[in-house]
Design a protein that fits this description.
The protein is 26% helix and 34% strand. The model has no long low-confidence stretch (mean pLDDT 95). By secondary structure, it is α+β, with helices and mostly antiparallel strands. It has 5 helices and 11 strands. The chain has 2 domains: 3-106, Ribosomal Protein L22, Chain A, CATH 3.90.470; 111-199, no CATH class. The strands form 3 sheets. A 5-stranded antiparallel β-sheet has the order 7-11-10-9-8. The longest helix is centred in the N-terminal third of the chain and has 20 residues, at 44-63.
Length: 200
Amino acid sequence: MPFIHQGKVKNTYWGIWEITESETQLTDQLSFHTTEEFSHIKSELQRKQSISGKLAIQTLTENIGMEYNGILKAETGKPFLKDTNARISISHSKHYVAACLNTERDTGIDIELISPRIQRLYSKYMHDEELSHCDMTDTALTFYWCAKEALYKMYGERELIFKDDIRVTESKGLVEKNGRKITADLEVYKHHDFMVVLSY
């Protein structure tokens, strides 16, 4: 189905897509794709997630009057739009896809299911300073994870240590590694049991 939620903050357009279509229905809507493009993905759900991510970005570009010429990937794995300077980010969890497009600067987005499983993982990605300001609920811990994932995607380079190189407050994010530093605002949205964080 089309976006179930859309938003705009500054120059960033974003939305949440619920995957209800069949694989064929999804690919039929894509302007640019090949038969082999998704054939290496064995899981049907993961294929539908990948197709829906591209379709969400295609829809965002069309909604703001931009020409869509397909999506390519940099050597780092970061997706980018062909023939435009606009920046994009895509995330998926279960039957939802979150996507964003910024017309001026890098951006990142992440969507995650809020689950008690996060209680076993937070020590791997949260700094002591962040823990001192966190109420340790599943929702709060998922926010920190989503925010750091979004910032990681925005930064666009591998080998970041989430615990040390990415710092998060309630509305701001900072990534600093090897002399390169970026700061970002954070937008938070909840849809049922899913958390979405946008960095821009």
